């Protein structure tokens, strides 16, 4: 076995002995390399006590290197490949996880956010290339029709503009985002929290196959690994750090989606949130996240998302604007005169100028201007608003909303 | 006529000669008092050219003092009273308008944000007292069912907690907020942009009568004054500065409601915005305001509003939380073991400890703990999750949403 194969095997063995993201293991690999780290741990030389017992417990169930070799064979049969930092397609940006520290960590899993040791990948695209220009769209599994609609639109719009749509392959928002990207004929990547041979949830199996055909299925766990609960949180750090930004579409009060957004913020990525009806339980977590994180950005569509993640000067969102009104161009006197005109009937210029607070000479000048713009009509009994047919009148007629 | 009556008459005359909020007039009144200011303007001694022509034009239509005297008589017949800074019930907080400067002023009306010279009031409450503990709830006239529901809830909830609900008496959100407050038997104030004898819109006439019975109808304009378009913007500065904060419920892209919130922010009041579906045109302005103003606060209900405007330490909103789970209390080892258990059937402690990555002795200790908490059951063939009847199982069973 070549030295390189040794290193690859060791990385696989290490992710089996200790969950991905374990800082102690990452530090050892950084210092001694994967092979030496594996030997060290197997010889019981773990720095942390809990890591020692974990390694011992896992080892009791089998030989780490043998398990790793078998995993590589299974992956081969599955048409999946192992990607490590030694490979050209390794996504460099995940290295930023080495610096990720979440505030007020209560569970150990929130503290174990080290970079991945390796990825299992199914699909033809080079992983790094696929993630280079990517945005994550994540959210509730129990999504509403509203949330699924928005997620699909985002997935479609981003893919249409050659952005890779990354998500977790779950029911609800994740699936909608993946499908939107697929519909646009774009690139989408599902980052799973289990082995690629047993994608979770099974109900999305067909979706996963479609994704693998044109995009990528990715996981840090070897074939056969189960979607144990903590693994979703461990996986979320990769979705956050592997993309330029994370968009949360719907999230209940206690949601993993906001955990991904939290990891995005603390990895100096853009965390974006789509608001929803305050009457919807599926938006409670989204709104709370916006209230708690001043760095989080409210986005209402793909234009806003592109504004956040796009290169400066490009992909800018147009500011929301109401219909431009003909009266916008008028100066204060002209507008005052227009607004002083009665809804029905005409008014003499003397009364009109008094009512508008504009002197007579100015009033006459402005009124003839308004006449040319066919906003007012001159009659024997004075001036009147132009007939309803003209759209201008509506503008002059409607008082501002409060 | 007493000196005081002279001053009151002068203030009324001044608001007829020049629209309320005119800075030049405010400065003169501050320096010379209302009576001298009136004489000065009538003698053509206006500082600004446009003010000169405005005064001249209005004077041409009648004698300012005579018009003012007639307005006072009309108000008397109407059961309305004039309130000036000389009166005890004057709301002191509107003085902050003297410092209000809006950025990038395009129309003159946006620059004329001086404090009011006087108020016309209908209703028995002292104006200052009514506005002391008040919140403004404003929004679109073309409100959706969602917006009206939220505005009614806010009006009701605030009134229920003895906060005065202030709005503009318009259709849609304004009316819903007023009605919510009335339903709670609370105090509500409608600030109008026209004379109290011809409230606009006419369709809310019945509502205005109900408000006047238990709350207040307020206007800067004398009886007979019409709801000219610019007056709504002029009025909005009073809603913003007269309250502790302004809540925008629904606002289209070009909305007067966000103009009120803008005036609130620049008057150092709290500007709050209720988000909505991004698919709704009636929320476009609300979301854009949140994106443009970092000081604006997203609120989802009365608890959040109270948190913003309430005295520090009181009226605090509870943080949105998901259901507390029994597993929250567990340490890492116990949780790992629980999560390593198969969905169905039992598992031997050796395999279990290996799968969970917990050494055997710890595993046995934690498992007996879990057994006491009736989260797991011991069987001849090992340990299993407690039967479905127990809610705990659902928690252990459901993987985190992505």
Automatic annotation (TrEMBL), chains A, B:
Pfam families xrefs: DNA_processg_A (PF02481)
Gene3D superfamilies assigned to the protein according to its UniProt record, in alphabetical order: 3.40.50.450
Boundaries of every Smf/DprA SLOG domain copy: 82-309
Domain of life: Bacteria
Ranges where the record places region Disordered: 381-402
InterPro entries noted in UniProt: DprA, DrpA_SLOG, WH_DNA-bd_sf
NCBIfam families, per the entry: dprA (TIGR00732)
UniProt xrefs under PANTHER family: PROTEIN SMF
Family (UniProt): Belongs to the DprA/Smf family.
Name of the featured protein: Protein smf
């Amino acid at each position: 076995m070549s030295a390189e194969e040794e290193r690859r095997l060791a990385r696989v063995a290490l992710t089996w002995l200790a969950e991905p993201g374990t800082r102690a293991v990452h530090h050892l690999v950084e210092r001694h390399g994967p092979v030496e780290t594996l030997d060290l741990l197997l010889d019981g030389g773990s720095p942390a006590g809990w890591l020692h017992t974990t390694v011992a417990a896992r080892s009791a169930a089998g030989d780490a290197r043998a398990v790793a070799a078998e995993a590589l064979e299974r992956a081969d049969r599955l048409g999946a490949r192992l990607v490590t930092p030694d490979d050209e397609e390794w996504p460099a940006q995940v290295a930023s996880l080495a610096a990720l520290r979440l505030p007020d960590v209560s569970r150990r899993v929130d503290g174990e956010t080290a970079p991945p040791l390796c990825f299992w990948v199914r699909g033809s695209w080079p992983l790094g290339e696929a993630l280079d220009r990517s945005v994550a769209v994540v959210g509730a599994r129990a999504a509403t029709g509203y949330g699924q609609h928005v997620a699909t639109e985002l997935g479609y719009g981003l893919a249409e503009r050659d952005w890779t749509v990354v998500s977790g392959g779950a029911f609800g928002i994740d699936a909608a985002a993946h499908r939107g990207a697929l519909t646009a004929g774009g690139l989408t990547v599902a980052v799973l929290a289990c082995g690629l041979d047993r994608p979770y949830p099974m109900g999305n199996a067909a979706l996963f196959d479609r994704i693998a055909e044109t995009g990528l299925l990715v996981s840090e766990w070897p074939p056969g690994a189960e979607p144990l609960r903590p693994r979703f949180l461990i996986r979320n750090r990769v979705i956050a750090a592997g993309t330029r930004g994370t968009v949360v579409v719907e999230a209940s009060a206690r949601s993993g989606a906001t955990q991904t957004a939290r990891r995005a913020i603390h990895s100096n990525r853009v965390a974006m949130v789509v608001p929803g009806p305050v009457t919807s339980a599926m938006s409670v977590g989204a709104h709370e996240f916006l209230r708690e994180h001043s760095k989080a950005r409210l986005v209402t569509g793909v234009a806003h998302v592109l504004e956040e993640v796009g290169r400066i000067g490009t992909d800018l969102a147009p500011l929301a604007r109401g219909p431009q009104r003909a009266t916008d161009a008028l100066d204060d006197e002209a507008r005052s005169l227009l607004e002083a005109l009665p809804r029905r009937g005409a008014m003499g210029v003397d009364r009109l100028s008094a009512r508008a607070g504009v002197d007579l000479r100015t009033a006459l000048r402005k009124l003839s201007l308004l006449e040319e713009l066919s906003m007012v009509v001159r009659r024997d009994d004075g001036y009147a608003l132009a007939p309803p047919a003209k759209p201008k009148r509506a503008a002059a007629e409607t008082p501002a909303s409060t």
